[in-house]
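Hey L., structure's done. Input below.
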Amino acid sequence: MHDHDHHSLKNHSPPHTRKNAHDQEFRLYVIFFALSLFAGIVEIVVKYLISNSVSLFGDGTHGINDGLSYLLLALVLVFSGYCPKWELTFTKIGVWLSFLLLFFGDYLVFSEAIERYFVPEEIHGWWTLSTVAFSFGLNLFVVWMIGKTKKEERNIRHDSVFFHALSDLWVSVGVILSAFIISVTGWYAADWIMAFVIAFYLLFLLCVLAIRIVRGNWKIGHDHSHGEDGEEHEHHHHHDTEEN
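Output:
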């Protein structure tokens, strides 16, 4: 019976522990949503009012998409709190919707890049550089915060968030590079070239994310043991009862 109790404690987190983990995860998603949405909106506003950079538009669009993805996952936790048994279903819906958001954002970047290729315009490189540097700083903070999550607390939602945040960080690096080239050399073509690079990079991410979603380990809880382990727990309980 001692072994039975140990198995139960090991594989099933107390309800309050699970709720605290969910609350912490929810707060992080809300913070990430606010930061990403703010950075993305600032980039797009600067693009249309001052810099005229389509690569900056691509970074801003990707940032807004990521922010909406974080909001989706936060809502997943809210809905799961009212109906815990549907948490896996809610999580799958949230992750797939974040995939569709990324797809829509990639379409917008491709459209802007193609239009700029046929209709070249002047780019304000230093405005682009300073704006995307600000966005990069916020993205770096998000990646750092996600990386602090304990391994035992990580699940498919965490993997999706980290994937989005890291991709946004690399996109910002690309825009910084093109903005620097424009600022130093005045070669405006670097902007739409980088926009195409971003668009194809996002397309690659879509393929990778789809594979991860399909083949991923759909761990959603913070004990990861409510399925097969639960059945094994019941089997051990029955076995112990028969022996007694």
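The chain has one domain: 2-243. The radius of gyration is 22 Å.

-- N.
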